[in-house]
Structure formats: structure tokens, C-alpha cells
């Protein structure tokens, strides 16, 4: 293959937009550009398409369309969901439970709530990155109003048992929140079966556009007025998220959900083959090992430790091969991954760990080129 061709193995950070998604969006920039909130025929026709996109999103996760709130991305959805529920006048409790390996959007939101008087329990994880369910049970109190556990970890891919967590906390009247940013569009998700109350995700993690995301909320348990809006000015999105709708991006999100629904199992199979092939080859390098649980993880993420390398230096040496040393939100911080440290991985190993994340656009040929390049560098 062309040695100068970009090889992109950083799909947990963002993905290439699907051509079918981009084609669907284009007309809403150039021809169908009306404000979806306008009352004239032009605006009403666009609003019909917004409602169709809402249905496409709902169908992917088995929710009702009226349970879908469009936002600018998962970070906003997380802030609106967690703060909105915590600060609601209907909420009289002040204790929330999460885990130390959550995305920074969840952790920083929890830090804020702590600063204004809420009590947050940050549960540790086991060395494989999984939550100890017994520790969760022990942490529950009569003052606990919610548990927020991510569905799939963005650095190591670990999938937490959301259904088991739900069975524990729902009889106690505790809300279940989950950041599903790394899971939606990649694995089947049924929010009703899992009894999720609030779920957050972005389009750009599964070949949709950047700048749009979703807050799902379970209307069987939560009404619109039980979530305190964070911004005001027009009452858009059932008064939960004011502001002119990003029509092209929402249309693109809907199309991405439609495509994911029909291709999810084929993509899952294809990407797992690529990831397993990559791991089989890279594990042949002396001392290399996989971080996190091998069995309970998303199929597109592989977090690898190559002892003795400096991950940040190594990424630069790889040149046109795009990978990361952890979350994109913390990539400018030159210190060991907080996720790996929470798993009690030694600093020397955490500093030598790399995240490879694959998509439906990757090939075995690209993997072979990457493996060859890595082996050449490890010899240096």
C-alpha cells in the first residue's frame, strides 16, 4: 500500500462521516435551509424531516420519539441530564454514584455538583476495568437519587453490565444514567429492556456528523419538567434545550442511525475480525499485553501496552498512522491515563499504552502495515 496514505485507527475519538449521511445532509445546507421552528410552509417541511430523524434515532435504541432530545453532542447531553435531574425542584436527594473511569464529561459534571453541596461516590474498578457490583450495592443509601455508569469505556472498551446494575437499583427508586457514546451504533441497545432512565451519545462516534448528540430520557419515569434546563431562550426541544436546531446535523444523525440499524451486525463481525487479527499479531511482540477485560469489551477498541516505549513519543514516530494514548478529551495532558491508573496499572505501563480503535472503513492491509511499522520501531 501507499506508505504515505493515512491509516486511521482513532475511531473512538471520531469517525469518518458515511457518504450516505453526508449526501443526505447536503440539501439542508443549500436548499432546505429553513429554520425548523418557523411556521411557514418552508419551515414546516423541514420540521417534518426533524421529526423523522427523531423517529430514526428512537428506532435504533427502541425508545419513543418524544423521549429524544437533540443537543450539540454527548458532553452537553451529559451536563443537561445529570445537572438537570440533580437540580430539578422535584429532586430532594443529593447523593449520586459513578465510577472513577467515567469520561471526563461525567466526572467534571460530578465535580461541579460536589462544589455546590452534592455528595458524589466515585467507585473504583477492578484491575480488568469492570465495576465490582458488590461495592455498588454497598454504596447505595436512602439519599441516592441516581447511578451513572458508562456503557462502554472510551479508552479500554470495557462493557459494564447495565442490565444487572438496573436490576439492583430500580427497585430502590434510583435513576439509572449511562454514557453510551462508545456503544450506540456499534452494539444493539434496547433502553426499555435495560430500564435506562437517561442515556447520552453523539453522532460522530458512528459515522454521523460532529456537533449533534442525544439525550434520551425515559418518559415512563421522568417527565419533561423533572429535568431543569441549563439554557433558556425559546423553549425548543420541549423546553429542555433552547436554541435554533442544527437541522443538517440532526438529519445526518437520523441517517446514521438508520444505517447503523441495518448494518450493525455485519459491521460488528467485520471490525472484530480486524481487531482480533491486529491483537494476534501485536501480541507476538515480546512483553506486549492488552489492558482491560478481554471478554466484556466493545469490538472496536484495543488498548495495548508495549513496555519500555513512551506512548506520546511513539505516536509521533508512527507518522501517518493515527492512534491515541487515551481519551481525545485528555490527549494534551502528558501524564498517565487516569483510566489505566484506576485499574492499578503501574505508571510505567500506563505511559507505554496505546489505544487502537477500528471502524468499518479499516482493512487487514492497513493492520499489516501498522504492525510492520510498530515492529520496526520497537527494534530501535
What does this protein look like?
- The chain is of the alpha/beta class and 380 residues long.
- The protein has 13 helices and 12 strands.
- The strands form 3 sheets. Strands 2-8-7-6-5-3-4 form a 7-stranded mixed sheet, with helices on both faces.
- Helix 1 packs antiparallel against helix 9, helix 2 packs parallel to helix 9 and helix 3 runs parallel beside helix 4.
- The chain starts with 6 loop residues before the first strand and ends with a helix.
- The model has no long low-confidence stretch (mean pLDDT 95).
Structure at a glance:
With 380 residues, the chain is of the alpha/beta class. The protein has helices at 19-30, 41-61, 74-86, 104-115, 133-139, 162-169, 191-194, 236-239, 247-282, 311-317, 338-342, 347-350, 364-379; strands at 7-8, 68-71, 95-99, 119-123, 144-148, 175-179, 198-202, 213-217, 289-290, 301-305, 321-322, 353-357. The strands form three sheets. Strands 2-8-7-6-5-3-4 form a seven-stranded mixed beta sheet, sandwiched between helices.
Amino acid at each position: 500500500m501507499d506508505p504515505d496514505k493515512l491509516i486511521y485507527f482513532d475511531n473512538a475519538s471520531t469517525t469518518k462521516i458515511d457518504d450516505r449521511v453526508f449526501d443526505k445532509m447536503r440539501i439542508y445546507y443549500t436548499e432546505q435551509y429553513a429554520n425548523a421552528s418557523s411556521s411557514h410552509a418552508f419551515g414546516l417541511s423541514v420540521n417534518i424531516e426533524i421529526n423523522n430523524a427523531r423517529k430514526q434515532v428512537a428506532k435504533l435504541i427502541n425508545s419513543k420519539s418524544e423521549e429524544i432530545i437533540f443537543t450539540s453532542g454527548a458532553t452537553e447531553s451529559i451536563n443537561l441530564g445529570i445537572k438537570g435531574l440533580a437540580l430539578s425542584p422535584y429532586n430532594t436527594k443529593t447523593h449520586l454514584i459513578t465510577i472513577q473511569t467515567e469520561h471526563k464529561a461525567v466526572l467534571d459534571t460530578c465535580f461541579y455538583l460536589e462544589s455546590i453541596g452534592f455528595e458524589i461516590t466515585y467507585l473504583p474498578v477492578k484491575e480488568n476495568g469492570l465495576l465490582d457490583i458488590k461495592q455498588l450495592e454497598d454504596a447505595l443509601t436512602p439519599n441516592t437519587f441516581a447511578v451513572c455508569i458508562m456503557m462502554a469505556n472510551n479508552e479500554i472498551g470495557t462493557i459494564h453490565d447495565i442490565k444487572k446494575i438496573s436490576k439492583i437499583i430500580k427497585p430502590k427508586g434510583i435513576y439509572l444514567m449511562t454514557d453510551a457514546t462508545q456503544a450506540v451504533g456499534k452494539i444493539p441497545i434496547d433502553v426499555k429492556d435495560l430500564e435506562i432512565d437517561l442515556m447520552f451519545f453523539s453522532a460522530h462516534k458512528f459515522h454521523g456528523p460532529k456537533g449533534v448528540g442525544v439525550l434520551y430520557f425515559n418518559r415512563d419515569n421522568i417527565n419533561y419538567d423533572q429535568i431543569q434546563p441549563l439554557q433558556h431562550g425559546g423553549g425548543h426541544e420541549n423546553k429542555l434545550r433552547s436554541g435554533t436546531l442544527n437541522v443538517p446535523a440532526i438529519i445526518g444523525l437520523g441517517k446514521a442511525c438508520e444505517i447503523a440499524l441495518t448494518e450493525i451486525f455485519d459491521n460488528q463481525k467485520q471490525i472484530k475480525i480486524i481487531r482480533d487479527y491486529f491483537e494476534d499479531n501485536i501480541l507476538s511482540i515480546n512483553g506486549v499485553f492488552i489492558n482491560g477485560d478481554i471478554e466484556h469489551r466493545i469490538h472496536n477498541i484495543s488498548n495495548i501496552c508495549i513496555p519500555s516505549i513512551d506512548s506520546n513519543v511513539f505516536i509521533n514516530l508512527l507518522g501517518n498512522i493515527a492512534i491515541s494514548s487515551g481519551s481525545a478529551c485528555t490527549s494534551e495532558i502528558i501524564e498517565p491515563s487516569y483510566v489505566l491508573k484506576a485499574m492499578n496499572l503501574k505508571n510505567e505501563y500506563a505511559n507505554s499504552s496505546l489505544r487502537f480503535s477500528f471502524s468499518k472503513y479499516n482493512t487487514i492491509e492497513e493492520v499489516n502495515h501498522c504492525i510492520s511499522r510498530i515492529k520496526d520501531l520497537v527494534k530501535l
